[in-house]
Design a protein that fits this description.
With about 550 residues, the protein is α/β, with parallel strands linked by helices. Helix content is about 15%, strand content about 30%. Helix 1 (about 270-285) packs across helix 2, helix 3 packs parallel to helix 4 (about 365-380) and helix 5 (about 465-475) runs parallel beside helix 6 (about 520-530). The N and C termini lie far apart (about 60 Å). The relative contact order is 0.10. It binds alpha-D-glucopyranuronic acid.
Length: about 550
């Protein structure tokens, strides 16, 4: 915007006259703010001036970004302060010695050009929104602040034992630490060791575990030296036993739905109202679980789901044809994985980290994903690891999952589109033989319909056809051993440049159970009836009842 290219000598000096430039709302993608930017893919420069009063007591100053899609270069007061690659995860830079008292300026170069070596790569079925899509904040912190911490309910053993660990930004010993959960009457005091870390346990008497039925959160207080923080967190355990998923030691069936991070009117989600709209739609289906596809959603979505009692599957945008041979690609996958886990590590409702979606098995792909799965487990040994695999059809007429990554995941998840992309003769009686003693989740299924279009079950794009697909798939679920969760694709119709069919798609993927205007399609009723069935009301919500 406002580009005035001035040529000086033989070098072309590009100067941006930001005063003459247009303006954009931040946070917010650029695509839905200016019609000429709907399809724009490339660089856009942001500039903002701000007044600042530097903290006096030796505090440090950081600039934090919720996310910039797909990559960002950040400058402050004419100095480059850093670059970030990854369009859906938070990042920050220290600006203590750059920011000054009085007037400052910050410039951000946002670029959403898709790259073969990227994560995501060039092809994906969602709108490539660009820009500073999430919040930007300046934060002052104690000089040696709490860089990371977590508090988890210990699995097994005595009830109410909470493992706490923290790490300071600087490796300094003997910093006094205080931890308390007033409502539980637990408290702890200690000192950091030489590497600036401290780990301890506390035992709570009457701890109420977090669950979808009672999403209890406790106010936790933590201080280390000058740094003090409070946060609302929940305590629960998640694990698998054979073919079942155990939440707080009891088997649970994940009654899910897939969701993209897209506001009803299009564009990346930025407001609480937009988040609460999707949560109310998911709850109206009887869901206790959401698959936040295909990249980390806005933090507010995860936190509001935690309050609403919705369990979460969170994933990095490692999707379809990834450049498996490229070390920079692996580095980007790993850094986005670290940032995703780092942001939501204390969210009780997040139970699954997923590392891939629909990637074709090969030697290089298997090596890449095995390394990534092991990294995920080393970053967080308390949650379940999964990925959306592909279905294999065997000559004997049965369906199975053939993927070497089955050894690396806790949950076998796969996407199937029986009745839409593939037409088995008899969907309700399709034979599944999945040879792993692990829980199974159907991470995507369904079909398309234009809301309000009606006809017979054979009329493509009619709501009746979509409903028929759902009814047949739901009948089939009863025959899948270890099935522990289902996630219809998808809660809402969503924008995609791969869906141009005029008068039908018009740039939208129409597999939503809800249309962008919120109207519900007939298939939503099928999921609601399924999820509210009697046998889900028992504690052991298994299908084989
Ligand atoms: C795939 C993919 C989704 C896509 C869906 C579809 O399974 O994971 O991102 O939108 O199919 O074709 O609608």
């Amino acid at each position: 915007f406002g580009r005035n290219a001035r040529v000086k000598n033989k070098f072309q000096l590009l100067e941006y006259d930001f005063n003459a430039a247009d303006t954009l709302k931040v946070p917010g993608d650029w695509n839905t703010q200016k019609k000429e930017l709907l399809w724009y893919e490339g660089t856009l420069w942001y500039a903002r001036q701000f007044e600042f009063k530097k903290p006096l007591n030796g505090e440090r100053v950081f600039v934090k970004f919720g996310a910039v899609s797909l990559k960002a270069d950040v400058y402050m007061n004419g100095k480059k302060i850093g670059r970030h690659v990854g369009g859906f995860t938070p990042f920050e830079f220290e600006v203590t010695d750059i920011v000054k008292d009085g007037l400052n300026n910050i410039v951000v170069r946002a670029n959403n050009t898709r790259e073969k070596s990227g994560i995501p790569t060039k092809g994906f079925d969602w709108w490539n929104y660009g820009g500073i899509i999430r919040s930007v904040e300046l934060e002052s912190r104690s000089s040696n602040y709490i860089a990371s911490w977590r508090a988890d309910l210990k699995k097994g053993g005595d009830d109410g034992v909470i493992d706490v660990s923290l790490k300071l930004d600087k490796a300094v010993a003997d910093i006094p630490v205080k931890f308390s959960v007033p409502e539980l009457g637990v408290g702890f005091s200690g000192k950091t060791s030489g590497d600036g870390t401290l780990a301890f346990t506390v035992k709570a008497r009457e701890l109420q575990r977090w669950s979808p039925e009672s999403p209890k959160l406790y106010k936790v207080e933590l201080s280390a030296g000058e740094d003090k923080l409070t946060e609302e967190i929940g305590f629960r355990t998640i694990e698998t036993r054979g073919g079942g998923i155990l939440l707080n030691g009891e088997e649970i069936f994940l009654k899910g739905v897939c969701i993209h991070d897209e506001a009803p009117g299009g564009g990346r989600v930025t407001t609480r109202e937009e988040v609460l709209e999707d949560i109310s739609r998911a709850k109206s289906l009887g869901c206790n679980f959401v698959r936040l596809a295909h990249y980390p959603h806005i933090e507010m979505m995860v936190k509001e789901c935690e309050k609403a009692g919705l369990l979460v599957w969170s994933e990095i945008p490692l999707y379809w044809m990834i450049d498996w041979n490229n070390s920079a690609t692996y580095a980007s996958a790993e850094s986005q994985l670290k940032e995703m886990i780092g942001r939501d590590v204390r969210r009780a409702n997040v139970i699954i980290w997923s590392i891939a979606n629909e990637t074709v098995p090969s030697k290089k792909r298997n090596e890449f994903l095995k390394r990534l799965a092991q990294k995920a487990r080393s970053l967080d040994s308390t949650r379940l690891i999964s990925m959306a695999m592909e279905v294999t059809y065997l000559e004997d007429g049965t369906y199975t999952i053939k993927d070497e990554l089955n050894t690396e995941v806790d949950i076998i998840a796969f996407n199937e589109y029986f009745g839409w992309y593939v037409q088995p003769k008899d969907i309700p009686n399709a034979l599944w033989r999945i040879p792993f003693d692990k829980p199974v989740i159907i991470s995507e299924f369904g079909g398309g319909a234009v809301a309000g279009r009606h006809g017979g079950v054979k009329d493509r794009w009619s709501e009746e056809m979509q409903k028929d697909i759902y009814e047949k798939n739901v009948k089939m679920f009863g025959g899948i051993k270890n099935l522990s969760g289902t996630c219809p694709w998808i809660l809402n119709d969503f924008r995609s440049p791969r869906r141009p069919l005029a008068g039908v798609q018009d740039g939208y993927n129409r597999k939503g159970l809800f249309a962008p205007d919120g109207s519900e399609k007939l298939a939503a009723g099928v999921m609601r009836e399924y999820y509210l069935r009697e046998y889900f009301k028992t504690k052991r919500e298994r299908l084989d009842r």
